[in-house]
Write a structure and sequence with these properties.
By secondary structure, this protein is an alpha+beta fold. Among the domains are: 88 residues, 2-Layer Sandwich (Alpha-Beta Plaits), CATH 3.30.70.1050; 101 residues, Chitinase A, domain 3 (Roll); 57 residues, no CATH class. It is elongated, with a radius of gyration of 34 Å. The strands form two sheets. Strands 3, 4, 5, 6 and 7 form a five-stranded antiparallel sheet that branches. A two-stranded antiparallel ribbon has the order 1-2. The two termini are 56 Å apart. Helices cover 51% and strands 14% of the residues. Helix 7 crosses helix 13 and helix 10 crosses helix 13.
Length: 411
Amino acid sequence: VPAEEVSRETETIIQKYQKLARLPGFRRGHVPASIIRQRFSEDLKTDVVEALVPRYFRKETEKQGLVPVSQPRVTDLHLQEGEPLRFKASFEVMPEVKVEGYKELRAEKPKIEVTDEEVEKSLEGIREQHATFTTVEGRPLTDGDYAQASLDGQPKGETPAGPGAPKPVHMDEVLVEIGGKNTMPEFSENLRGASAGDERSFDVVYPEDTSDQRLAGKTFTYKVKVQSIKTKSLPELNDEFAKQLGEFSSLEEVRKRIREGMEAERKHDAERDAKDKLIVELIKLNEFEVPESMVEHQIDIRLDRGLRALAAQGMKAEDMKKMDLNRLRAGQREQAVSEVKASLLLDRIAEMEKIEVGNQEIDDEITALAKQSNQEPEAIRARLTRDGALDRIRNRIRNEKTLDFLYHQSA
């Protein structure tokens, strides 16, 4: 940095100090420059460096056509009065990405089929959702009945208050199908033959693959009180039932809507899988090194997303603090590298194919976000602008459009 520029910046900063400094024997704003230099020499040097280093770093990188993707590490800093300011800056730059072979990529597009049996199974599920339950009296529970009951379950052989111990299970009102395929056998065996008002105690051993992790592989002792006995009635599958579902005039219309929905879902899943494979092939065709800072940033994003999901599932902050973050970061690294490479490759293809994102597409995205969060679009836009997130949204949409382009041209 030329000595003249250092001198000018120093004088500018001294003038600011003169306006603000309060020193004994001097009125505010009337402290001589020589006193400022003497009393605040180290502060002046720091301020000069903080003003000139970023300015000239940016100027030089632009001059050389470099795009920094990390904060510079400044070394060999030299600042003496009357001399040029000298420094070295080490930083990572955006890699030069050359994309080859993307027009030769081919994606498998399987034929989407939905069988009549699958439609009927889905229709039966809707029918189950509209089942009605009737209380019966004067007889005990038998297979096919439903016990309306309250239950308390305690983990056997463990102190519930102990560290890491499973929590008790308590339900004031639950329906248990006797002999049902989704009912634990111990419930059916011990409640079969019970009448309203009866209480039963028994153990339930849960398999290791039980979906509820609170119960998986554990034994619970239950106390169950039968409140009432109910039978289930299913509505007839006819046009009248279709009309009760709303916006349908016949059962065939319901079947058609079910089929269309299943086809759309399978088409979406097939496209997603095909696009994932295209990205994998694209990366294989175009190997290059990515800046470590970009990988670390992507790991941060993935970890933040994962921790937010755990919090939404009920994990407490103190439990999160016990997690081995170094191990978690290492586990996210491979996928983060792939995601950074994919983003850079898609960016380059978008440039080559002149794929852009219009303002209307941004507006549509903001409107969708507003509906999801039940907020006004203007409030969403203001927050995104304040957080600098609009560019991220634009880049995401452009990447999605570019991936769509690759998918459709791969036919």
